[in-house]
Amino acid sequence: ISVIGLQVILKNNNRKNIFIFLLVAGIILLSWTMLKDRSDYDSLIYSEKDNFGKYLAVNLEGKIMGDYYVEIARNLPNAQLGIVGKEQLQNDQLKLIGFGPPSNSINDLFDFAKKYNITHIIIDDKLDVKSPTLIEIFYDESKFPFLEKIIDSHVEGFNQINVKVFKINFDLLK
User: Fold this and answer.
1) Which of 3, 8, 83, 133 has the most crowded CB, counting CB atoms within 10 A?
2) Which has the closest alpha carbon to 146: 113, 112, 174?
3) CB 164 within 8 A of CB 141
């Protein structure tokens, strides 16, 4: 049906030229928009995220989940894929776990953490659609006594990003 519609529209030579012009203009506009999005990326923030990933890869031990998975994974020395209930990346001191299923409550999130023996959670200041409760932890950590903040990116000298690392104390979690 669309081919027949195009044939009818393109019968007239004048319409054909307008159609081709609009098609080319549309392609150029879309290409420009995509290139603009790529060039707006802030290399300073990228560099700081990567350096923070290196810092975490060296200074953390245990099984962790949360934000900055890619930054840590990229900087994890002697990393291997392992399977413990789900795929993860690991070395001798650190195991990275994805966030798991979406959670809408703190209980869901920490039930998952307990099931997979996760020791640390990494949270940045961005709202995470998959686990919206994390932003509450980030900004009001005093409501969660079972979480001990062990790393704060600002305290460690990372000023372009805002990330906190918490150690989970399952004995205090009820």
Assistant:
1) 133
2) 174
3) yes
Contacts for 108-112: CB closer than 8 Å, 24+ residues apart: 109/133, 109/134, 110/146, 110/168, 110/173
Structure tokens at 138: 């980030």
Alpha-carbon gap, residue 166 to 122, rounded angstroms:
6
- The token duo for 7 is 């044939």
pLDDT in tens, the chain (174 residues): 567 777 776 777 777 788 888 889 999 999 888 777 666 567 788 889 899 999 998 888 998 888 888 888 888 887 777 665 455 777 778 888 877 677 778 888 888 888 888 899 999 888 776 677 788 888 999 999 999 999 999 999 999 899 999 999 988 876
Closest CA to 120 of 170, 155, 172: 170
Handedness of CA 66, 70, 74, 80 (dihedral sign): positive
Query: Which residue matches tokens 């990228």?
Result: 46
